[in-house]
Each structure stands twice: as C-alpha cells, then as structure tokens.
C-alpha cells in the first residue's frame, strides 16, 4: 500500500488529490482532504482499463474522472520508469563488463542517466561476498574517485546522445547505498557483474547479493562476465505456480518489457509432474489472467535441475534476457542457496533480471 499525491484539472480548476493504492496498483482510493468520509474509488485492470467503482461526493464528470485516471497513470509511469540506471562497480573486469552492458542497454531503454557507484566501506568482507572494493583492502576516497572517474571516461563514448553519466563513491554499506540512491536519483534499474574467478567464489554467492536481491527497491540485473550487450528481442520470464496473483509484480515487469519492445515467453519449470498439485489449475488460470493481454507464449517444462532447465529453454528460444521473481516461498526460494546459484550462473551467458516480489 502506498499513498501519493497527483494533480489534475476539474471544473477549470487545478486540483490536488491524495491517492492510496491497494492490491498491487489495481485499486485506488482518492481523497481531496485527509480522511474524507466519501472518497472516490477506482479500479485499474492488469491491462490498464479503468473503472469508477464509487464516484464519491465530488460529482466529477466522465472527462474529469479520465483526467484523474491519467494523472494516476502518469505517476505509475514515473514509479516504474527505467530511464535511470545505477551500476555497481568494484573496478574488476567483470564489473567493467557489466557497466559496458548497462551502457548498451541504456540505448534500448532510452535512458537519460547512468550513475556509477563504488563503496569503500572499511569493514572486512568475506571472500565469498560481492566485494564493494577489490583486493581485500580498504581503499582511500581519493583512489576510489580516481578509479571511478577513469571508468566513467572509458564508458562516456558509448552513452546515448542525450544521456549523462554521474559517479558516486563513499563508505556506506552497499545495500543501504542502493536503497538511498534509488530514492534520491529515481533509479529504475540496478546493474552488477558476476565474477568468473575461482569458480564464482566472489560476486554472485555473497550475502550482499542476496540482500540486494531481496531488499533492493528496484529490479537488479546481474550480468555474467561473458555477456556482451545485444538488443533484447526475446525475454524469458521464469515463474512458478504459487501465489501467482498475490506475488507477481506484473505492472513493473510489463512496463520493462514494453519499454524494450521485446517478445515475452513465460516459462514454468517443475519436477515430478505426475504428483498433481490441486492448486495448479487455479494458479494457471490466474497466470493467464495476468499476462494474456501481453500476448506471450506459455511453456511448461519438467526438469530435475530447475536452473539448467531454465537456461536450456532460454537458449532454445534465442532469448537475450531471463527474468525471475525470487520468493520467500515457491519456485525460486532455492535460487539463492549456494548450490543453486552456482548452477544458475554456470549455465548461463545471459543476464538475469530479478524483480522484487509483491507483498
């Protein structure tokens, strides 16, 4: 649930309203004053169709309701815009490759700004964690600024014509920095790399990565070391069949895919399908209700190794990107277990985009 303000025009007046959203941006309460006794109630379908459930006491005309709906829609566009990208770097080649990928992606997303961020926090970081600095030592602010400026200079030529690049470095905890910068800079996407050294003993398996995936307020794109940017034409969304309507961030994923202009393929991978799940039919129906408006392809696979099944399927589809929603319970709850994460990283040369579960 979120409350925000919008401005719209009614009766030749510019009005301000407080809007509270419910049920994952599908229901809205609109108040002109706090705790209004008879507020406007609106519904928005997953396909973006609006309906006035209760007109309240304001006697707005149909045209005025449409102006209000457009104002709310504009706010949703702002929330889920992906025109500002935050790139995390530890100055390794893997991180530099992720930054190059982000620069290429910025063209397709028509991004207006990329922010490079490096943390030189002075706490000890385990060898298995995503190290916000390289080499296991604390860098000075001066050295960090020098290194991140050099990276910016190398990437500058690859930026879209109307985009800018900013640099930030400080001693903050990585997750805290991401949360703070995302709010301050209206970040729509966070990008980080995977280290290929020592059998993935560094970046992907670390506790910081798990924290980012669970708690980052915006989607997290993980770029393998061998990935080079190719225009994204096909996206595989690997989902489970548990709590589909309650947990899937449909609006955020739709906005991202529509911005890319990509073909959507929805995949469910399971194992031992002969054990029938009585909830599966209901969940499949909800899955179609959420996504049929995007005209995706639906595929279901039985595979004993879920990570391998996902990536083999993505390769068959010639996909350029895989999207998942890590959940506390369900299909991807094991994706952050060390063995599953290693498998997933080993199996792919494709970037993996993680959206936070709706709760």
Features:
alpha/beta, Rossmann fold, 33% helix
Structure overview:
The strands form two sheets. Strands 8-7-6-9-10-15-14-11-12-13 form a ten-stranded mixed sheet, sandwiched between helices. A five-stranded antiparallel sheet has the order 1-2-3-4-5, covered by helices on one side. Mean pLDDT is 81; it is low at 122-137, 196-206 and 328-338. Helices cover 33% and strands 25% of the residues. The chain folds into three domains: 2-79, no CATH class; 84-223, HUPs (Rossmann fold); 234-354, Rossmann fold, CATH 3.40.50. It has helices at residues 62-79, 93-109, 141-155, 174-185, 207-215, 244-247, 250-260, 280-291, 306-316, 338-347, and strands at residues 2-10, 13-22, 27-31, 40-44, 50-54, 84-88, 113-119, 164-170, 189-193, 220-223, 234-238, 263-270, 297-302, 321-324, 352-354. 40% of the residues are buried. The protein is globular and about 60 Å long. The chain starts with a strand and ends in a 5-residue tail after the last strand. By secondary structure, it is an alpha/beta fold. Helix 9 packs parallel to helix 10 (338-347).
Topology:
Layout: E1 2-10, E2 13-22, E3 27-31, E4 40-44, E5 50-54, H1 62-79, E6 84-88, H2 93-109, E7 113-119, H3 141-155, E8 164-170, H4 174-185, E9 189-193, H5 207-215, E10 220-223, E11 234-238, H6 244-247, H7 250-260, E12 263-270, H8 280-291, E13 297-302, H9 306-316, E14 321-324, H10 338-347, E15 352-354
Parallel strand pairs: 6-7, 6-9, 7-8, 9-10, 11-12, 11-14, 12-13, 14-15
Antiparallel strand pairs: 1-2, 2-3, 3-4, 4-5, 10-15
Helix pairs in contact: 4-5, 9-10
